[in-house]
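Running this now, will post back.
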Amino acid sequence: MDRILVLSLICSLSTQGVAQNNDGIDESSPQFDNQGIIFNTEAPKIGESLRASCIVVHLTSRDSRSVKWILKRPGELEFAIAVDSVALQFRSPIPRLHAFHKQGTNKWEIEFSPLERNDFGNLTCELSNTHPKTVRVTRFLNLHVQPVILESSTRGLTANIGDNFTLECLASGYPPSQFQWVQTFETGTYGSVITDNQLIERWRPYFRKQETIISDGPILTVINATMRHRGTYICSAKNGIGSGDSWTALVKMNFAPSVTCEPRMVGQAQQMNMDAYLECMVEAFPASRLRWYRYNKQTGEKRLITESPDYRIENSGLTDNIVSRLIVVNILANDYGDYFLEAINEIGRGTGTVTLFETADIQVGPGNPGPGRPNPGTVQDNAAKRLSESFLLVVVSIFAIFFSI
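Update: finished.
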C-alpha cells in the first residue's frame, strides 16, 4: 500500500513539471514573453533611429542562451543580422546596426541608426538550443516612407478618337498613398482636377456622345476619348510623409487634319514690289503632309505650288500644331485668286482656302500679316529700297539740270 502511494505521488509531480502550452512547448522552459518584439516607436521613418527589444522568460542563472536577430524582406530569403551583442550586417561603410545584451539578463536589443529604405520585412528573435522545437517571435517592420512613383507607371500612350484608355500611377511607400490626377491644357495651365473615386461626365456638342473620366486612386480611365483628352496628365501621390512624388503621362490622340486659315481674305496692290502672306493653322496627329495649291474656280483645276522665285513656303510649330505660310512674292495681276492648303495624314484629309484680292493702295500694317498686312520686315525693306531709288532719281535729275545749264 505504501509503495502504491509513493508511486502515485511521483507520477503527480512529474505531470506538473512537464506542463505544456498549446504549441507543445514546455511552459517552464525558456521562451519569449507575450509582448513579443517591442519597438520604441510606432512609426519608424527612414533616416531616424529604431530600437527593437525582446525578452526571454523562464531563464535560470545556470541557463546560458543566445538570441539571434533575423530579417526577411518580402520575396527574399531570411538572413541573420545580429547575435547577442554582435551586429553581423550593415557594418560598412559606417556601422548603423548595433546589438545589445548584458550577460545574465533576459533582454536582447538591436538598434538601427539610421534606418534605410531596405530595412523592412519580418524581424525575428530566435532563441538558441531549443531542439527539436524552434522558439522565435516575429514582428513586421514597416517603415513610414514617403511615396516614390514606380518606373512601371504609364509614361504615355497614343489613342484614337472614341477609344477607352487607362493610365497607371503606381507608388511605393507607407502608409498607402492618396492620389490626385490633374490634366493640363496645351498652354501649360492647369485644367481639370480629378480626385479619388470621382466620376466626371461631359457631353460633346453636336455628336452628343458621352465621354467619361473615372479616377480610382492610382488608376485613371477615360471612356470614349475625344480631342479634349490629349495632353499631359500629372499624378501626385502623398501619404503624409515628406513632400510626396509626382509623375507625368503624355496622351496623344490620332485625328485627321483640321485646317483653319485666318484671315480668309488677303488684299494687296499689284506691281508695287509687294508680297502677300497667306497663313493657315493645321492640327493633326500623326503629322500631316502639307501642300499649297492655286485653285481655279471656273475650271476646277488646282496647280501644286512649290518653292520658286514667285513663292516661298514657311512651316513652323509642333508636330500636331503647325502654322503654314505661303508668301506670294512681288504681286502681279495674275496672282489674284484662291489658294488652298491640303493636309493629309494616316487618319484623313483637311483643307483650308485663302483668297488673294487686289487693292488700289499698298497694304501695310504692324504685327502679324492680316488682310492686306504683309510681313512688316519685308514691307520696310521694300520701302527702303523704293526710297533709295527715289533719292537716286532726284540726285540724277539735279545733276542733269545743273549740266544742262
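The radius of gyration is 42 Å. More later if anyone needs it.
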